[in-house]
User: What shape does this take?
Amino acid sequence: MATIVLVGVPGAGKSTVGKLLAKELKFQFFDSDQVIEARAGKSVSDIFTQDGEPAFRQIEHDVIADLLDSADSVVALGGGSLGNEETRSNVKKATAVWLVAGLAQAVDRVGMNRNRPLLLGNVRGQLADLMAAREPLYKEVADVGVDTSKLTPSEVVTEIVSELKKVGAL
Assistant: This one.
């Protein structure tokens, strides 16, 4: 029973790479934010604005705990999900891959996406702050790290598979 978790800042490529990685490994793919939206019946942005970030983070924690029990799966986590200590502890029981992205790359990928409630306004400044705050959490849980800066999504998948084989996770 393998569960591979992808972590990283918004724009690192977790969803794009996760789908490709799952296909390569013949695993299921789950994006935690999409599962949250399906369970809540509204968008992540609406949960933030209508119910508040603490309510969102609780739903997020519960969803991730459930997803980590899925056999042979790749799970892309929301960028801020590791702020919850219990979630970090749960993720450490799986195999975590940190998709490392540079600030310029992440900003280009995120653009002016209005579905990212923590990045409204000065996207570059907000993303730089999030990266600084969250990188220690990504390092804490990651079994391997892959720099996505100069790689295509399929190249990232190849690198992840190689790294996971090196650590005996595949």
In short: Confidence is low (pLDDT under 50) at residues 112-119. The helical segments are 14-25, 32-40, 44-51, 53-67, 85-91, 103-110, 123-141, 153-166. The chain has one domain: 3-166.
